[in-house]
Records
---
Amino acid sequence: MTYQIIYSSKSSTPMQSDDLEEILEHARASNASKGITGALVYVDGVFLQIVEGKSDVVQNLMARISGDVRHETIAVLWEGEIPSAVFSDWNMAYVSATPQQVAHWAGLLGTTGVADALTDTLTDTAHDTRQDPLKAAQVAASILAVLATQPSGRANAG
């Protein structure tokens, strides 16, 4: 089994393309050595990231991310075991998307802010505060569908 965490966070400062490239280069090198795969989306000052691998390694990475000053308001949207890595071909893929695309992936109409859309969508608040794995899987599948057409690990969702 593979352990997966999907989280969102607000960027503490606006990210430029050079900043994102630096993050991706570091993540790809580090993740390759640790057997971590995943994808990163950055839109409207919000990160959405999916990280997969061995449970202890992924949880240690999440602890480091939580202490990273580039992140504010970190919300774990999904965390749990999955049968196999969804992003096994990418140490850290990057998807450029619009807020409307992220809302669409999450099954929303696109009228909500990205951060609120992610939190509301991946948390099943109708029943309680448990995370909804089906919605999390829907978001991951949507990102993977974009990446499937871009084997280089850099994709524009447009």
---
Amino acid sequence: MKATKLKLFAIVAPLCLLPGCATIVEGTDQYINVNISPQTAHCTFTQKGSVVATIGNGGGQINVSKSRHDILVRCEAPGHQSQTISIESSASGWGVVGCILIDLCITDYATGALNKYPKSLTISLAPTS
């Protein structure tokens, strides 16, 4: 009986290691806290050419899919200069661990979990002269 359980464990245990570390630990999407000034500003977030979020009223929290692609943010407010910024994607710590120890980045790269964005973002629009 013990030999059967040991054989089963020897087969099942490696299968548990197939998914990437970051995919399991951190997931494939994340929240970004956004603060916008002035309160009347409205921002649009695009990723790979598609709008992924819009936010106004001084900010809030958005949920985005993790990706190796940066997120482009375009903000506008009456009486203020428009601003466009890029939120850069960087490697996740768990993603790097998964690359080295588990599956050579295959799962985490495919799901986007290899990457992450900053947890918070502050945008201040300058008044027009």
---
Amino acid sequence: MVRHIIMFKFIDVKDQDDCMQKANRLKAAFAPLRNIINVVESYEVAINEKSTDFSYDVAIISEYNTWNDLETYLNHPEHQKAISSCKDIKKEKAVLDYEF
């Protein structure tokens, strides 16, 4: 199995409401992919609930049977559409991919 974790930290956030609005937009764009892309074995979109100086705002944790399945997910048109729909949200990203 392969686990893919991507975390987003929003940049230029006005206040907590702005942060939550952006987090909910990301979740709305990406959460449906679990039921659309058939190579996804497990999928969770998590919004951070405890802020620290080094916290990220949203994480997507997903699992796939193979590295090829992960590539299929990453290149899938619906995944690309979700990315495009959130492109205007300024953010930093961190990614971790590993086999377990």
